[in-house]
Amino acid sequence: MTSRFFLFLFAVFSPLLFSSNSIAKDFSLKNQSEVKAIYNESLNNKSSNPWHITNLYSKEDDSFFIPYHLWSGSYWDGNKNSENCMHDVRNKWVFKRGDRERKHRVSAPVDYEIPENGKIVKTFQVENRRNTQNYVCHKKGLARIYDGRFDEAGVLSELDGKECKFPAGFGWRLDESQDCSASSPKETKVVELIFDENFILKKMIYTYEKKKGRKTRRKNDYYEYEPDKGRTLHKKYK
């Protein structure tokens, strides 16, 4: 009876034991010095998935290419091109802002006329019930050229289309700030990349922070973005 009882317990609980041990975990990268070792390990688990670390990281430059499609939440085929960064978008961001769920509609390409010269440019447009923003993409990311809040405050000229409101393109390294616009009071830093057990990117976290020595009333921004979704979290902090 005793041996039969133990065999019964083994038959019931062994699948649970083995399955719990085999559950793979996501892993986080926060320091650039950690990346090469993870990249080398990923070579044993290659994938055609465009979000695989081997398609995002350059060992030669020790830096990442961040797809513009990570911002928009649109499908990305893996083509790394910062010169032709405009792409079709018909998406809705659903993300957390404080304790509330926010929804923004994202569309592209949308024509925008620059007031100063009447030039028409192709933009990404972000809309909610209270505001409209128009972004252009450049070799280091996305920048606003229109923001209804700036327009109402009479400071629209502060948006020069050069900031990295979202980091994208080549040459991004973890925990290193990049100052994309001399006129902007903020700079951009990728602080964390989260990959699944198969080395597929699941989430990018970055900050848009005040530059040292620059005065601004604007608070710092913390963002999280996920492939095929776009923005999933936005927080303000001092």
Q: How would you describe this protein?
A:
- The chain is an alpha+beta fold.
- It has one domain (24-237).
- Helices cover 18% and strands 41% of the residues.
- It is built from 5 helices and 15 strands.
- Strands 1, 4, 5, 6, 7, 8, 9, 11, 12, 13, 14 and 15 form a 12-stranded mixed β-sheet that branches. Strands 2-3-10 form a 3-stranded antiparallel β-sheet.
- It is globular and about 55 Å long.
Topology record:
Blueprint: H1 2-22, E1 27-29, H2 35-42, H3 53-56, E2 57-58, E3 63-66, H4 68-72, E4 89-97, E5 100-113, E6 120-127, E7 132-138, E8 141-147, H5 148-153, E9 166-167, E10 169-172, E11 177-178, E12 186-195, E13 201-210, E14 220-226, E15 230-237
Parallel strand pairs: 4-15
Antiparallel strand pairs: 1-12, 2-3, 3-10, 4-5, 5-6, 6-7, 7-8, 8-9, 11-12, 12-13, 13-14, 14-15
